[in-house]
Every structure is written in C-alpha cells, then in structure tokens.
Design goal:
The protein has 135 residues and is an all-alpha fold. The protein has helices at residues 11-34, 37-45, 57-77, 81-101, 105-125. The longest helix has 24 residues, at 11-34.
Length: 135
C-alpha cells in the first residue's frame, strides 16, 4: 500500500519506540519487585526451581528484579543493549517455565513468551541509531 511505502525509512525510529515502550514497562514491573524486600525476592527467586536451580532463591529473585528494573532503563536508553536483551530473555524463559510448571498453560505463559521472542529478535537487530550504543 502506498500509505506504508516509506515507513521502511524509519526503522531506527521504530526500534526507539520498541525500546522505550518495553523499557518503561520493565522498569514499572521491576521496580515494585526490587522494592519488595527479601520475602518478595525469595518468592520470585523460587521460580528458578522450574529450570532446575534450587539454591539461593533470594539472590535469584534480587537478580531478576534488578534485571527488570535496571535492564529496562538500559534498554530505554540503548546502553549495553545486547547483554541486557540476553538477560531479559533468560528472565522471561524462567518466567514462562514457572507459569507452565504451575499449570497455567500457554494462556498463562503467553506474555512471557511473546516478550522473550521480542528480546531474541532484538539481539540480532540491535538498538538502532537513536541509542547510546549506536555504531
């Protein structure tokens, strides 16, 4: 369609929209987990049992909350973009495994899977021109 024919010229802007949108949402969701304290971190970190990790739940919960919060910020500005995408991808794989393990099925795990697919794709594409990491 003619109306969409020039949008390919704005790929970097599209990547900025994705980065800002996902970054803000991950900051929002991660901040409450980060501020939730040791009980919250232990509950969150116990999700690693669904991928075979049964030790240090407080550490893993804090790492997950920090990854979401600070990773969201780094994603937003486009700094350390690919490492952040990898960490968020791992976080979301654990989240999806936990949801499947709790019997939520595909409907319950769909959001985590969708975000994981997005981060897997962004690993290859990169942050775009409008980022701190621009090349």
């Amino acid at each position: 369609m003619a109306i969409f024919s020039n949008l390919g010229n704005y790929k970097n802007f599209g990547l900025l929209v994705i980065r800002v949108g996902l970054g803000v949402m991950f900051i929002y969701h991660g901040y409450s987990k980060l501020g939730g304290g040791v009980k919250m971190w232990a509950d969150l970190g116990s999700s690693t049992k669904y991928v075979g990790i049964h030790f240090w739940p407080v550490f893993w919960g804090l790492a997950s909350a920090a990854t979401e919060t600070f990773g969201g910020f780094l994603l937003l500005i486009g700094l350390a973009f690919r490492p952040v995408c990898l960490l968020l991808l791992i976080n979301l794989i654990v989240a999806a495994a936990m949801l499947f393990g709790k019997g939520e099925g595909l409907n319950g795990a769909a959001h985590a899977i969708e975000d994981a697919v997005m981060f897997a794709g962004l690993l290859f594409v990169g942050p775009g021109r409008f980022s701190v990491d621009k090349k």
